Amino acid sequence: MNKENQEEIVSIEVITKDRKGLVYEITGIISELNIAILNHRAKVYNNKNKKMMSDFKVVVRAENYIQIETLIHRLNKIKGVISVNRNTL
Predict the structure, then answer these.
(1) 26 with 58: CB under 8 angstroms?
(2) Cα–Cα separations (whole angstroms), residue 21 to 15, 59, 78, 88
(3) Using a CB cutoff of 8 Å and minimum separation of 24, what contacts does 19-22 make?
(4) Bridge partner residues of 59 (DSSP)
(5) pLDDT, tens digit (0-9, with 9 covering 90-100), for 56-71
(6) What is the pTM of this model?
(7) Could you tell me whether strands 81-88 and 36-46 are parallel, antiparallel, or unpaired per DSSP bridges?
(8) Which of 30, 54, 60, 63 could bridge 18 with an S-S bond, Cβ 3.0-4.6 Å?
(9) Distance, CA of 44 to CA of 54 (rounded, Å)
(10) Digit-coded pLDDT (tens) for 7-48
(11) DSSP label of 31
(12) Over 12-59, what HEC string results?
């Protein structure tokens, strides 16, 4: 089986400026791409400049790496995103 057809389970961390509707937007993108959420957590905190930040971590299962690449690309387009990091499990 080639990599394009191999199921992917990855952990993704999205660091962004906090705002209303952020978790809804992130999970909406995951849902639109028909990717399964296996686990998630969100944390809001003040950074060193006293700005509210959000750290959203999610473990997902996708049909292939193309879905994951599409997800990463779409997450990076969200307003206020600072970084999107991926770790293959």
Answers:
(1) yes
(2) 15, 20, 11, 27
(3) 19/54, 19/79, 19/80, 22/54, 22/56, 22/78, 22/80
(4) 11, 39
(5) 999 999 999 999 999 9
(6) 0.89
(7) unpaired
(8) 54
(9) 4
(10) 999 999 999 999 999 999 999 999 999 999 999 999 999 988
(11) H
(12) EEEEEECCCCHHHHHHHHHHHCCCEEEEEEEEEEECCCCCEEEEEEEE
Quick one: tokens of 44? Answer: 């809001």
Q: Write the single-letter amino acid at 10.
A: V
Q: Comparing C-alpha atoms, which of 83, 86, 79, 77 is closest to residue 58? A: 86
Which two three-digit tokens encode residue 26? 């992130």
Domain annotation for the chain: domains and CATH numbers: 3-88 (3.30.70.260)
